[in-house]
Design a protein that fits this description.
- It is built from no helices and eleven strands.
- It has 127 residues and is mainly β.
- It is globular.
- 35% of the residues are buried.
- The strands form two sheets. Strands 2, 4, 5, 6, 9, 10 and 11 form a seven-stranded mixed β-sheet that branches. Strands 1-3-8-7 form a four-stranded antiparallel β-sheet, with no helix packed on it.
Length: 127
């Protein structure tokens, strides 16, 4: 059974930091690109960051570039999203996703129907 389990969400003040984790199981982690999406209340879902499976290249949406960092630990089948300088507009449910093949770069996955989705973790940034 494929599972993507997010953790690390919560309430934080503007300017603060959070680190999201996503533990993956049930598929060959090394073959998949891992991405984070988010959906804010009343807004469309948005792809915000991906890490490719072949070379570990990363991509970020303009809205988070320079503040968020995606990384992965293939030995632990886990992907992370370090979020710094959080803003109230970052408030959203954050989803961990996976897709194969994982070697595309750039923002390919942002508009792609990802293979697997986690249930999401809520991040609330207060002003």
């Amino acid at each position: 059974e494929v599972q993507l389990v997010e953790s690390g969400g919560g309430l934080v003040q503007a300017g603060g930091s959070l680190r999201l984790s996503c533990a993956a199981s049930g598929f060959t982690f090394d073959d998949y690109a891992m991405c984070w999406f988010r959906q804010a209340p009343g807004k469309e879902r948005e792809g915000i960051s991906c890490i490719s499976s072949n070379d570990g290249s990363t991509v970020y949406a303009d809205s988070v570039k320079g503040r968020f960092t995606i990384s992965s630990d293939n030995a632990k089948n886990t992907v992370y999203l370090q979020m710094n300088s959080l803003k109230p507009e970052d408030t959203a449910v954050y989803y961990c996703t996976a897709d194969r093949p994982g070697y595309y770069s750039g923002s390919y996955y942002f508009d792609h129907a990802m293979d697997y989705w986690g249930k999401g973790t809520l991040v609330t940034v207060s002003s």
